[in-house]
Amino acid sequence: MRLAKRSRARLPRGEGAGAWLAAGSVALSLLALLALLSLLAIRGLGHFWPASIALVALDDGRQLAGEQVREVPLPDGTGRERLYRIGNRDLDGTRWAWVPVSAIAAVSHPPELMVLERHRWGEAIGRLVAVESETGERLEGQAARAVLENRMTELASLRQARDTLRDEVVLPRVQALQEGGDVERELATANARLRELQAAMQAGHLTLETASGERWQVPLDQILRVRYPNAMSPLDKLVVWGEGVWRFLSEGPRAANTAGGVWPAIFGTVLMVMLMSILVTPFGVLAAIYLNEVAHQGRLTRLVRIAVRNLAGVPSIVYGVFGLGVFVYGIGGSLDEWFFDAALPSPTFGTGGLLWASLTLALLTLPVVIVATEEGLARIPDQQREGALALGATRLEMLTRVVLPMATPAMLTGVILAVARAAGEVAPLMLVGVAKLAPQVPVDADFPFLHLERKFMHLGYHIFDAAFHGGDVQAAMPLVYATALLLVLVILVLNLTAIFLRHHLSTRHGALSRR
Amino acid sequence: MSFVQDLSSSPDSAALIDFSPEASSLAIRGLSLAYGDKPALRDLTLRIPRHRVTAFIGPSGCGKSTLLRVFNRLHDLNDEVVRTGEVRLEGEEIHGPAVAVAELRRRVGMVFQAPNPFPMSIHDNVAFGLRLQGGLSKRKQDDIIEWALRSAALWDEVKDRLRASAWSLSGGQQQRLVIARTLAVGPEVLLLDEPASALDPISTLKIEELIRNLKTHLTLVLVTHNMQQAARVSDYTAFLQDGELVEYGPTDTLFTNPRLRRTENYITGRMA
Ligand SMILES: Nc1ncnc2c1ncn2[C@@H]1O[C@H](COP(=O)(O)OP(=O)(O)O)[C@@H](O)[C@H]1O
Ligand SMILES: [Mg+2]
Fold first, then answer.
1. Which residue intervals define the domain ABC transporter in the entry (chain B) (predicted)?
2. Mutate to test the interface with A, among B65, B118, B131, B192 (most CBs of A within 10 A)
3. What is the pLDDT averaged over residues A31-52?
């Protein structure tokens, strides 16, 4: 702790190879960390930048429009080729086009090129030809643009109304119905309203002309956003970028996790880690107190201590298997039989969920907390303990009034280490409760508010899933980078919180740090 | 002194003086103690006079601290310790079944070699023992704290910063704070285990003066390896060696005219 810091010998400054080596390795690790973060940041955050759309004319007369992603040498070394993200996946069957640079006749950036962000199938790129309303009314040119913009705002509010209705009126009543409530009338009205909204959204479509000259009708309700990137000023682009980043942070995923946001995963990760800390801290601290303050310091205690230290080295997947066998099937299965037999055979606690995942990770990080707390306890001089006893304190009073306050920073160090370890763990979670897609976050307005039995999403697993299970890995890659960056940042924030807490607690004891 | 028995009447006794039971605070009879199978105290019998300063001297490892810790039962925590014999405080056996350890430790306070204030404010350090007892009004508590700090000759130095951390005090101040903390719970006996050995000469003198002042209402037992200190502050001195009581008598007599060769050798620095 602080005592160690003070007595640590320092290498003489500017002298000897040792000092240089030490400084060099510190610099190197910092650089490596920085490089990692900037790679993730550039690859991930760049994705939200509305890049210009190039209209590429090829030598053979064909045209394509898309965002240039990168340019690399041809495999045979005779020139270079470019990768364009051309969208229109449902039309062409692919979203990407490789073009040899030598085959390009001209590149231009016409301002009227339009990018449609759609609910499914990714973006559509082309020129706006016309907008047709449900009544068959057809508008072209500037008028079409204006009406499209209006229609988008309208759609956004319709969507909002629909989501609110679904989440706040329909879903709770469906649940109430399952539990035998008498809400059929209300539900029917709500459903009718839902259908109305749905119908209002389904009106109209627009006609798009792709770069290759094809005309194509896109239903308006499929479109999330319309952009004309080539006509945007850098400031406009920045705003769009900010909105994109915000949506990434605040929305749920779409299109099998290859698009949309990661809010449920952020929420799940943080909630799971916090639950884990709440579970592991008391157990770890009590165990450490027992080992260090209560137990007879004999061979058995030494053995237990060695065992605890070795537990820290057990691979995390083993904990996952243990959690699955003991928590999920064992305890969860019994809980279901005793308390949730109405729902059987569909399991309530007898399947992976938030509680079991947190417990499994708590078990995984228990040794870390025990070891850190024990070290903190061992550093407290016996004179402090004897001083308390000599004043007439019982052992319990000595522990709670002198020893534990002094060991708090060490305890929190343990929790920090536990958080750092737990937030990045993915493997055991796959066995005990993480879900690829969990539309309902485990906290909501329904009693008991925190739903420990629910499955949850996790940033680490989201990365894994988006990178390896999506249909279009190329498209998901930027999101993978962005999610990875986010995971690092979330761990950082969790750690900083704990460090802040530790600092706050130790300054409360004032000169403890000055000594 | 009237209660000192005629020395000639107990020629072969190591305890050269024997106070009447009424005049003694602690009475030890046949006390032996071992850490596991390693003896540390061998068959000690002596009485410690009330409201006097009694010093224990002897080479390092002779059992001085061990003896002191018997008096407030700090050995209770160590399962290794095997003890036989009696220790009576004001006539009552301290190891008796009816004795509450916490209560005993409040009656027999202890100050250790290295100052060990708790990582709290000066005020809270002194309040620590009071709060354990509970039931005191805030005003009463503050009065006792002031009284204790005054008794420990620390009040003037800290009265303006009672909320400052105790660890911001100097070593000497910390030791006086620890004494104040102990005084606050109202002990009858104060055990001091080399209280000044980690302090500078001026702080040492302050502690010594404090010890002399405290004996008006306290029984003090002082362990020291500093012969001059024993000579300066104590009324009686006991010399221990290898866990045995070698010689015990009025300080003046013991230092100027020791009865035994071993004592004389130790005092004059001719240790084997
Ligand atoms: N906790 C303990 N466990 C085992 N032996 C101890 C312990 N404390 C002291 N001793 C031993 O008992 C003897 C007396 O020690 P101590 O009372 O500390 O001597 P002093 O205070 O006179 O220097 C020494 O030999 C010491 O090694
Ligand atoms: Mg000692």
1. 26-267
2. B118
3. 87
Q: Does residue A296 sit within a domain? A: yes
Residue B237 lies in a domain: yes
Give per-residue pLDDT as tens, A102-154: 888 888 888 888 888 887 777 888 888 888 877 777 877 787 778 788 888 88
Q: Which amino acid type is present at position B242?
A: D
A138 vs A361: which has the higher pLDDT = A361
In a domain, B149, yes or no: yes
pTM more than 0.90: no
Domain count across chain B: 1
CATH code of residue B127: 3.40.50.300
Q: Can you tell me the distance from the alpha carbon of A476 to that of A53, in angstroms, rounded to the nearest whole number?
A: 20
Chain A (269-308) residues lying within 8 Å, Cβ to Cβ, of chain B: 296
Cβ(B203) – ligand 1 distance below 6 Å: no
The answer to whether B66 and B245 have CB atoms below 8 angstroms apart is no
User: The domain that contains A338 carries what CATH number?
Assistant: 1.10.3720.10
Domain of residue A412, residue span: 263-514
pLDDT at position B81 over 90? yes
Sign of CA pseudo-dihedral A500, A505, A510, A513: negative
In a domain, B42, yes or no: no
Question: What sign does the dihedral A274-A276-A277-A282 (CA atoms) show?
Answer: positive
What is the tens place of the pLDDT at every residue in A317-359?
Answer: 999 898 888 888 878 777 777 777 766 666 767 677 888 899 9
* Inter-chain residue contact B181 with A509, CB threshold 8 Å: no
B61 close to ligand 1 (CB < 6 Angstrom): yes
Please give the span between the terminal C-alpha atoms of chain A, in angstroms, as a whole number: 11
> What angle do helix axes B122-133 and B171-184 make, rounded to 10 degrees?
20
Q: Which domain holds residue B132?
A: 49-76+100-268
